[in-house]
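agent: user wants the structure for DUF8009 domain-containing protein from Halorientalis brevis. delegating to structure tool.
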Amino acid sequence: MGTESDDPSVIRSIAISTEDLVAALESAQRSGRDAVLRVTPPFSGRMRARLHVEGDDQYDDPSPIHVDPTTLVAESAPDYPTPAQTEDEIRADPTETYSRERHHERHATAVGEWRANLGSHVVETTTIDTQSGSHEIEVTLLG
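agent: tool returned. relaying tokens verbatim.
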């Protein structure tokens, strides 16, 4: 087992579940809530980052590291599909007639595809901010 520390610069890698990453990114898009992936002390070489919704949290020292989920996906990641985009696609297709039911079904499919494809756009490394400056770590995707 690795040595535990109050210093987050000992972190070499974080492991995140696909579900937590998708939920954090989707939360920001759908509800505007500040969801992050939180790494809690004590810190060691390999850490797990879990879904957390930021609030007025008060922490003892050392504070957990909050990783912005957008820093964990490459620029090539698809944008979260909006209902307006889905509606526009249906209305632009001359072979389809718009209906609320069709809109709902198409949007649910688009979101499902976004969720399924997001894991292939996770970065290999990211940078976290520590008291001693920026620190690059590896990112491992679980599931």
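agent: one observation worth passing along. The longest helix spans residues 100-118.
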